[in-house]
Amino acid sequence: MQSKNEKYGIAGLPAPELKVAQWVDKNGKKSTPITLANLVGKFKVLYCFQAWCPGCHSSGLPALQKMVTALKDNDKVAFLAIQTVFEGAHANTFERMLEIQKQYDLAIPFGHDEGDADTRNISSTMYNYRTGGTPWFILVDADNRVVFNDFRLNEDKAIEYLKSL
């Protein structure tokens, strides 16, 4: 996906608009597309995962769960989970995404992003944000600039920072 000269992530750059085809709300019901433009003024935490990703289940989803719980009453922060399909589409399905939302009791919007021909049929989020796989965290500030874009996130420090907003 990446050329040898390209680095992963786009920290410091304007956040590309989300182009996720299928969304569900915090209750798992299909919803209208969510865009960053709808969330201007809020700090956005985007969590990218795949259903079959062991690291997503062992570290990423528990970290997201901890952050969502710690910041549940903070209306300055919006959490979005996006299943970024780049392989294994047979296992990383919309239905499996719904199961994960319930399994981890995450009352946040979830999106299913398989990409299209323009992104070589990999997730548009992965393509546009130059992620390196899953689990992956992307933090976008209130002005829609990417401030963090990487595999590993220290959720305790992230919580501390987000509480200070």
Q: Would you kindly provide a written description of the structure presented here, covering whatever features stand out?
A:
It is a single chain. With about 160 residues, the chain is α/β, with parallel strands linked by helices. It is about 25% helix and about 20% strand. It contains four helices and seven strands. The protein has helices at about 55-70, 95-105, 125-130, 155-165, and strands spanning about 20-25, 30, 45-50, 75-85, 110-115, 135-140, 145-150. A seven-stranded mixed beta sheet has the order 2-1-5-4-3-6-7. Helix 1 links the parallel strand 3 (about 45-50) and strand 4 (about 75-85). It starts with about 20 loop residues before the first strand and ends with a helix. Mean pLDDT is about 95; it is low at about 1-5.
Pattern of helices and strands: EEEHEHEHEEH
Measured as a percent range, the helix fraction is 25-40%
Strand order of the largest sheet: 2-1-5-4-3-6-7
Shape descriptor: globular
Number of β-strand runs: 7
Helix/sheet category: alpha/beta
* Count of alpha/pi helices: 4
Radius of gyration: 14 Å
Break the fold down into its secondary structure elements and pairings.
Blueprint (H helix, E strand, L loop, with lengths): L21 E3 L5 E2 L11 E7 L4 H17 L6 E8 L9 H10 L6 E4 L10 H6 L6 E5 L5 E5 L4 H9 L2
Parallel strand pairs: 3-4, 4-5
Antiparallel strand pairs: 1-2, 1-5, 3-6, 6-7
Helix pairs in contact: 1-4
